[in-house]
Write a structure and sequence with these properties.
Rossmann fold; 25 helices; globular; disordered N terminus; binds 1,4-dihydronicotinamide adenine dinucleotide; binds 2-oxoglutaric acid
């Protein structure tokens, strides 16, 4: 973007918990006291003093003196600390290295910490030693810290104010920091504005005094119209994650600087309409329905992409999302193995009547007998749906000595010795186990009902780990009660409780040799951690560089990284002539196109154009105004 840098602006930046994520003296204590039996006690004492100082509860000079006295550190520890701190530079500072380097002359680091470790760290982003104002340690002959230069203004109470006064800066002075002493520069009138920096720490007594609260450096740069790494600060972009997705997902978005909210349970339509307000990225699992009604509500107007933290996407109105230029991603393989293992385990449990035996044991009944216990080896399993899950079960079941049959609406290659059936009836009428692994499309509603149970063999074992609406529950209940179905395992239900606090109500409750599980086919630590990484990575690629590779409803494009260019993303209805109109705008403004990518589906077109950094601001406006445009955004 054009650099609207202000004339004579000096930016005064704090070091601890601002430039870096941590309080350096606390970390130095950790390093220096390693192996000391009193380490925890001393470090906690130092942290307590730091916090009191930062909150303005004790004078700074006292806080510094007390902490240094507790340290017992030497030069070797300082070297270790520098290495550590270089890895702890705040994410938004790292992201905006270009701004910091270009403006290093007008940036001052003003800290009550110590130059000994601050200078090498800030130099990483191009800030020179002469722009660092901080304390200095004194050392004894062995290199142990013996104290600090007590003449330094920054070692005194109100040190930052004294220092700033002595500098006699001209022009505007903006101070950025997380502590009360940073605010004091504003209070004294020496800084024109104070920005409370909350990326790492947020203190109420500081934020409430600030002119602006900035969750990242991007936000500071955005507010002041300065050049920055993010076109729109991510701290202004809301991510809503539902259904207790894995903490890794929360971390992934937070690390990128987004505003993240995580809710434990699912939301119903009305609740979602309420919560989706201003949300750009939505993450959900199988229980939250993202319907047309939600999508067309004005509250959903900022929604850009959706992550299904699962395989199934039947809970999302994919067509409506596409129509609105919202890209949807899922995790097509991350929990496959978990469902497969559970299905195999359930088959064995049912065939051996284990649940009943276990329940009786808990009631004190020892019933050692082989009655109603069988092996699965040599039995026939029928897989309805031969996709990723169905085929993996096929391979494992065959390895266990089962004969595998499958039926799929799509022509699928048989793995191993599995036998393809041409109709559902052909499959159901000859197998001992029926296991459903179809997807949850609407047309699969009640594909197993009274008639289909009537085709099955007597004493069949029945499993549904696909979707609840695929099976007519009353028909299954009748089949179990009549003895047609000898055992059943059901993991998915037409209605599932929204949270763990809601009662599970279903006619399958209390029936013999029926294992009921709360939709946990994919709920293993491994699967959830995989999903928690995979889905955010797709959503972040979409947000950060426009890639839609792996999207389930959008033209798929894997884009190269954005380097030294602006990227213009234009989503439109797939009607003739849009590309020409887009390029006419570029031609009109003599824009140099570095790269252009186009992909369409039947209904939607997605054109990505990388242009050189000099451009006229009217271009974006004209591109947005092209007829049939659905969404437009710009990355740089
Ligand atoms: N219980 C749980 O926690 C989990 C449940 N699932 C469910 O399992 C489903 C299957 O997962 P994947 O195998 O990964 O999906 P997939 O898309 O690879 O396979 C589904 C297969 O079912 C076939 N199919 C669809 N309708 C059919 C019908 N009426 N008759 C016969 N075949 C039909 C499709 O052609 C496809 O081959 C998911 O869509 C999801 O609903 C997935 C993960 C966890
Ligand atoms: O874990 C979940 O919430 C849903 C799992 C599932 O059914 C899926 O992956 O499709």
């Amino acid at each position: 973007m054009p650099n609207k840098q202000k004339e004579q602006l000096t930016i005064v930046i704090d070091f601890d918990s601002t430039f870096t994520k941590v309080e350096a003296l606390d970390e130095l204590a950790d390093i220096a006291l390693l192996g000391n039996p009193k380490q925890a006690e001393i470090v906690s004492k130092i942290r307590e003093i730091t916090d009191k100082g930062m909150a303005g509860e004790i004078g700074f000079a006292d806080s510094l003196r007390d902490r240094v006295a507790l340290l017992s550190a030497n030069k070797i520890h300082i070297e270790q600390l520098i290495k550590f701190l270089k890895g702890k530079i705040s994410d938004s500072f790292k992201r905006n290295k270009a701004f910091i380097q270009e403006n290093a002359d007008s940036i001052l680091i003003v800290s009550s910490g110590f130059k000994d470790f601050i200078v090498p760290v800030v130099e990483e982003l191009g800030i020179a030693e002469e722009n660092v104002y901080a304390n200095t340690f004194t050392y004894d002959a062995e290199g142990n810290i013996s104290g600090y230069d007590q003449e330094n203004l920054l070692s005194k109470d109100g040190g930052k104010v004294l220092l700033l006064k002595s500098l006699e800066l001209e022009g505007e002075v903006y101070a950025i920091g997380d502590g009360y002493t940073d605010y004091e520069m504003r209070e004294s009138g020496l800084a024109n504005k104070f920005y409370a920096f909350t990326e790492n720490v947020s203190r109420q007594n500081v934020t409430e005094k600030a002119d602006f609260v900035v969750p990242s450096l991007d936000e500071f740069l955005y507010i002041n119209g300065l050049s920055r790494a993010q076109s729109y600060p991510k701290s202004r972009i809301k991510v809503l994650l539902l259904e207790n997705v894995h903490p890794k997902a929360v971390q992934a978005f937070k690390k990128e600087g987004f505003q993240v909210e995580l809710l434990k349970g699912a939301l119903d339509e009305e609740e979602l309409i309420e919560k989706i307000k201003d949300v750009s990225i939505l993450g959900l699992r199988s229980k939250t329905n993202l319907t047309k009604k939600v999508l067309e509500h004005p509250n959903a107007s900022r929604l850009m992409c959706v992550g299904a933290f699962c395989i199934g996407t039947n809970q999302i109105d994919l067509a409506e999302c596409e129509k609105r230029g919202i890209a949807v991603f899922n995790a097509p393989y991350s929990n496959t193995r978990s469902v497969v293992e559970l299905s195999i385990g359930l088959m064995i449990m049912l065939t051996r009547n284990i649940v009943e035996k276990s329940n009786r044991m808990h009631a004190g009944v020892w019933d050692k007998s082989a009655t109603n216990s069988y092996e699965i080896r040599g039995k026939k399993i029928g897989l309805v749906g031969y996709g990723n899950i169905g085929t993996q079960i096929s391979v494992l079941a065959e390895a266990l000595g089962m004969e595998v049959y499958f039926y799929d609406i799509v022509d699928k290659l048989a793995l191993g010795n599995a036998k393809k059936c041409n109709t559902l009836k052909e499959l159901l009428s000859q197998v001992d186990f029926v296991s459903l692994h179809v997807d949850g499309r609407k047309s699969n509603t009640n594909i197993i009902g009274e008639e289909q149970f009537s085709w099955m063999k007597e004493n069949v074992i029945f499993l549904n780990l696909s979707r609840g609406h695929v099976v007519e529950i009353s028909a299954l209940v009748n089949a179990i009660k009549s003895g047609k179905v000898w055992g059943a395992a059901v993991d998915v239900f037409p209605y599932e409780p929204k949270t763990n606090d809601e009662e599970f109500v279903n006619d399958l409750r209390g029936l013999p040799n029926v294992i009921l599980t709360p939709h946990i086919g994919g709920s293993t630590e491994e699967a959830q951690a995989n999903i928690g990484e995979f889905v955010p990575s797709k959503l972040l690629q979409f947000m950060n560089n426009g890639s839609t590779y792996g999207s389930v409803n959008f033209p798929e494009l894997q884009l190269p990284p954005l380097e030294n260019a602006h990227r213009l993303l234009h989503i439109h209805q797939n009607v003739p002539g849009i590309l020409a109109k887009i390029n006419n705008v570029f031609a009109k403004y003599s824009v140099n196109i570095i790269g252009q990518y186009l992909k369409t589906t039947e209904k939607t077109g997605y054109v990505i154009t990388d242009i050189s950094k000099e451009y006229a601001e009217e271009i974006a406006k004209e591109l947005k105004e092209i007829d049939n445009t659905i969404k437009f955004r710009m990355l740089y």
